[in-house]
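User: Working on a comparison across species. This one is Glycosyltransferase from Anaerocolumna sedimenticola. Can you predict its structure so I can line it up against the others?
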Amino acid sequence: MKKILILKGISQYNVLRYAADAIASGFKDLGCQVKVIGFHAADDFDVALREIMGEYDLIFSFQALFFDYKLEDNTFLYNNISTPVFGYIVDHPSYHHERLSAELNSNVYLGCIDNKHVSYIRRYYPGIKNVFYIPHAGFESKERIPFEKKDIDLFFPGTYTPSLSYVEAINQLPDIFCKTAYKIIEYMQNDLTVTLEGALEVYFNSIGFNCSIDEFRELMVMLLPVDGYIRSFYRDLCIHTLLENGIHVTVAGNGWREFITSYSENLNVISDKGIDIENVIELIGRSKIVLNVIPTYKEGLHERLITGMHCNAVSLTHSSTSIEKFFKNKENIVIFDLNNTDQLPYIVNDLLTDVNKSKEIAIKGCSIAAGNHKWSDRARDILNICCNI
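Assistant: Here's the predicted structure for Glycosyltransferase from Anaerocolumna sedimenticola:
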């Protein structure tokens, strides 16, 4: 029996704390003995350090907790143990720059939710020896509501930040970096397959500029408002297009009171303060269609997409390499083109009108999620990587 330690940090809407509990259950389903330590107070930190030095077969955390933590002798904590350590990050690596800059031994592993993130880490963070693509899993609702009895037509769960907020952040950059940011935005909007780092590399090549790996990493951190802008721009575009064409959209997450529209009668804001993930899952369970808009994921899956499937909803999303690999359009998922969002209202109207077709898509999507994208599946993936199980 493998003995697993799970470190559970703090996260927005408690999503990653909930996921930590879910993957803990997944490890238990596979016959492992699991101990979970959560961080609520300063004392929890000391408890975690003591446990990390204990006898475990695997230490797991979301967001690569303690990757950059140093002991009094200035050595990295995880370099002082032989236990396999697996960190699972759910954002672009640049959001975790400090942690990933550590020079760690080969007992440390990193999982990413996007294959492009894997490539980026292998090139720009050589201190991380082992990095793997681990797709997101999803959550199941406590109650499985029949499709025809769901009372929310279309639900988008997620934070709203106005694009202008990111524009203001970009405009405060030094002039040369501000100009670089807008050039990168242009590249990324002209070709939706291009990543932030890919656009930066193309731009540097076009002007004949060379920099070191460390300099490139620092520039990527500086240019993260571009990542936020791209995400916000396309969320704005999709939601506005739906509202303007009479589609009723339900949203929940921080910031939605700042969303400006002339069609507010079509927008149902459940909460603009953010609600706990358990309540979000309940809302997804009541929804016929769950919208996914996260254009900065080029070769990955997002949790809301999989959760929508687990909850017997139609997952409506733009494409990515992983989506095309795991799912089939109009059979178990519905894919729209971010370059042609004018078609989005027609797609939604068709799904809401042809209930039998939508119900069939939802059922098939639920079947695939149940068969391949539970947290126990991710736990098995991690054990295969770290413990050869």
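For your comparison, note: DSSP finds 15 helices and twelve strands in the chain.

User: Helpful, thanks.
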